[in-house]
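Appendix B. Raw example, untouched.
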Amino acid sequence: QLQLVESGGGLMQPGGSLRLSCAASGFTLDSYAIGWFRQAPGKEREGVSCISSSGGNTHYADSVKGRFTISRDHAKNTVYLQMNSLKSEDTAVYYCAAVLALSARKNCAPLYGGSWYASGMDYWGKGTLVTVSS
């Protein structure tokens, strides 16, 4: 069964840190660009960060730039999202998604910026809840 599974969510105080993981089973992520999305209560889903298949290119939404870091470990078939300096507005369900990187546009290329998040994803995880509250 081909699936993405997120983990690492939980309750954290403002200013704290969490690391989310996105692990793939049933297929290898090597040829896929991976992104993190989030959906807060009552809001639309938004793109947070993406990373190219090689890991050489990354993109961040303005709201998380400088606080979040995306990375990938090909050996572990896993992508991470390190979240530092958490704010209450980071509270959301976080999803990872994968798209086969058949073109630069689908491979989180800097030229295309945030438009990558509007690409049709091939796989989605079920999400992990992050709650930032004191």
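End of appendix B.
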